[in-house]
């Protein structure tokens, strides 16, 4: 159960950190402008400079979306963002990187600076931003330490350790999300004068069959979950049991995200629901899953359609 006092403390801290970083950016930017202005010979040149550095917000053509996230936004081959551009005609500006964790996005130096810089450039070009898309949490849950969430099959315990899962999802990842959402919201307010819609999403429950990217050969990433399952006594012949555990884990993660969108501070945050049936995990699952955690082209197109549906429902 969420603790309102804890949420308030984290949100206040995140906003303060965001304002501190944004103040530093404004000071640095003002210093650069002043230094350039000193070198200009007349008042007319200074007026031109001020006009060139004034941020405008265009009302027409809100087809631009700004994305920050992990490999679902930055995959070698067509991913969600590619389909939003190529099929649904959005102008996608991306800061995503395949290895990003929620904690990286929340706390790493430069992350907020990059977002603010990108927003400023878009606005300076007269482009209205329809929404900010965030994809985070997959690397925090299903990375190399995935096995820590599990209990051995012969222990008689729940295969998902409730204390560890709760600590990872409802404390560590949730706190990172509070920081991310609060900082992104504050950046939008300081840059455009109001919050921008933010889309967050869960992950359709994957199939932990031991496949990595292109088989996980040599330096290629993966597998991510099969080694942890094997260590805990769930071998490759117990794929159905593995899938059941993943469905439970992802639902806990989804519940946490849905609850965030219900906080009064985040009325502008929208959850893109990727329910278990979004991508098949049945006999035809390889048509939808390229490996343990990434969809195929067909799978990514289905997920992108869910994003497009939510984007289409936003106020113009």
Short summary of the structure?
Helices cover about 50% and strands about 10% of the residues. It has helices at about 5-40, 45-50, 80-85, 100-105, 110-125, 140, 160-190, 225-230, 240-260, 295-310; strands spanning about 65-70, 90-95, 130-135, 200, 270.
Q: What does this protein structure show overall?
A:
With 316 residues, the protein is α/β, with parallel strands linked by helices. The protein contains ten helices and five strands; from the N terminus they run ααβαβααβααβααβα. It has helices spanning 4-38, 43-52, 80-86, 102-107, 111-124, 138-142, 162-192, 226-231, 239-261, 297-312; strands at residues 64-69, 91-94, 129-135, 198-201, 269-272. It has a five-stranded parallel sheet, sandwiched between helices. α3 (80-86) links the parallel β1 and β2 (91-94). The longest helix has 35 residues, at 4-38. The protein is globular and about 60 Å long. The model is unreliable at 35-61 (pLDDT under 50).
């Amino acid at each position: 159960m969420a603790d309102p006092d804890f949420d308030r403390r984290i949100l206040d801290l995140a906003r303060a950190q965001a304002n501190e970083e944004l103040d530093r950016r404004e000071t640095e930017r003002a210093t650069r402008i002043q230094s350039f202005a000193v070198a200009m010979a007349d008042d007319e040149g200074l007026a031109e400079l001020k006009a060139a550095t004034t941020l405008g917000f265009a009302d027409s053509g809100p087809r631009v979306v700004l994305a920050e996230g992990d490999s679902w936004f930055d995959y070698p081959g067509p991913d969600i963002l590619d389909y939003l551009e190529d099929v649904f005609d959005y102008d996608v500006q991306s800061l995503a990187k395949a290895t990003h964790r929620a904690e990286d996005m929340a706390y790493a130096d430069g992350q907020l600076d990059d977002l603010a810089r990108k927003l400023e450039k878009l606005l300076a070009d007269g482009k209205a931003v329809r929404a900010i898309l965030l994809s985070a949490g997959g690397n925090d849950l299903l990375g190399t330490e995935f096995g820590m969430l599990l209990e051995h099959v012969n222990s008689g315990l729940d295969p998902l350790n409730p204390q560890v899962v709760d600590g990872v999802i409802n404390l560590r990842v949730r706190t990172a999300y509070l920081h991310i959402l609060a900082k992104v919201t504050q950046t939008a307010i300081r840059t455009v004068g109001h919050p921008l819609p933010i889309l967050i999403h869960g992950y359709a429950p994957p199939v932990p069959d031991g496949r990595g990217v292109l088989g996980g050969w040599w330096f290629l990433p993966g597998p991510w979950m099969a080694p942890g399952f094997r260590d805990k006594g769930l071998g490759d012949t117990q794929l159905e049991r593995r899938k059941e555990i993943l469905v439970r884990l992802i639902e806990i993660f989804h519940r946490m995200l849905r609850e965030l969108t219900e906080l009064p501070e985040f009325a502008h945050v929208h959850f893109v629901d990727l329910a278990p049936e979004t991508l098949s995990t049945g006999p035809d699952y390889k048509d939808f899953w390229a490996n343990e955690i990434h969809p195929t082209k067909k799978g990514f197109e289905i997920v992108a359609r869910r994003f497009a549906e939510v984007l289409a429902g936003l106020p113009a």
